[in-house]
Queue: 2 jobs
Job 1
Amino acid sequence: MERIITLMTDFGTKDGYVGAMKGVILGINPRCTLVDITHEISPQGVFEGAFVLGSAYRSFPQGSIHLTVVDPGVGTGREGLVVETEEYAFVGPDNGIFTWIYRNEKVTQVVGIRNKDFVRKPISQTFHGRDIFAPVAAHLSLGRDPGEFGVRVDTWSEIEIPEPRATDNGFTGEVIHIDRFGNLVTNLSRRLLDPFTHGEPLHIIMKGKRITGLRTAYGEARKGELMAIFDSFDLLEVSLMGNSAAEALKAARGDTVTLVVPERDAR
């Protein structure tokens, strides 16, 4: 059966971990299509992995299986999960990595992986990606029902996603992701801001710097100029034309970003 299995991990590509997972999958279903989302999630970066997965999964065709292993709890009592939604399936650890999925998709069932018939033996205590999650994803791609892998569960782990806070003249948000270009992605969305601003000019304040207005393209800014723009996922992003905003501002995830409408400051 030809189905897409995506892989996202924090393994990097220096070692053979990703290759081993692909080998296990292809040994079970050589006709599936394997697509790498990324293997450059920061080590143990569950929040980062959850955000990147939440940003990427909808780009794939309906029926795709998303295998995600960012798993600092490997070998502990945390459970492995198969999460089925109306359009996709997800396989990985129960550590909050699927938080954006739970919030944005209609989940039809969540199954704790307990059926040992579908896992590789013996199971390594340090490599569940190869021994549990890869074979489960492969069997799932052959048309197995998620319920065959274990027991349906009604509770699961989620990570806290920070929410913007309204102020008298705008919103206070924070950086939730830094991409490889050093762009600072915030939790301030176009959907949140558009009804509030009504086209009025905006000021974005971060690390003592004030950015006036929003750009519609990176190329509108001068080299070395800080700018704000809605990114491809409609989240407000602070960028530095031709360089890294994260390095220039010494910024990190969790740093505060304030948005104000200046005209309302004077009222």
Job 2
Amino acid sequence: MEIKPLKKLKLYGFNNLTKTLSFNMYDICYAKSPEQRQAYIEYIDEEYNADRLASILTHVASLIGAHVLNIAKQDYDPQGASVTMLISEEGDTSAETDALNTTEPVSKAVVAHLDKSHITVHTYPESHPNKGISTFRADIDVSTCGKISPLTALNYLVANFSSDIAIIDYRVRGFTRNLDGKKFFIDHKIYSIQNYLAKEKRELYQMIDVNVYQENIFHTKMILKDFDLDNYLFDMDKKELPPSERKRIKQRLKREMAEIFYGKNIPKV
């Protein structure tokens, strides 16, 4: 969806509003043995490295109308990576369109600095000590100042991470003035983050909104509607498992996902 500016808003000086889009994206899987869990961590560390994160963030910068000035990146031993980008706002902000149909893979940890703005990505693979559950979390922040908006990159980021669960926050801070000196605390229309998600994405997820309109704070939680056990098994097939074990694993995965989605531990019945 196009980001629609407020009609007839002519500013005095620079647009001082800060717009921040934040994600927690989760991928959940079941790795049966300690060796499989270790292999999952190694897979994530290889698949989500600094080079791929740098590629993703470079495209994000392009989508929101920012220019990458410099990139520094580092992969760490035994695991992890980081990337730093220096970015400035471009004069042409015509990139305010849906950013869809891109499915490049992603990785480890990135910090990108824009002119008065920033982009950061950090990844956190981990495993349950004895239940076989493994999770991969990516935290992403896109914060911009001026006419450019991080909402432009929303669909691109959701498509690239293909997460089981996504928790998204959008907030507009500060104020800007029109030619008469009147303060404006937001420069575009928004009722929900969902408004900026492509229809095909919205149909895949169950979503909940918690919005504080008077504070320009918008919060959306997303969890996949469909559940196919094969999509959650690492290095195995559900056909290899007896029905009783399939049921047990499915219950563990569902419980893990529900606890992450609702942000609390669920008591055992």
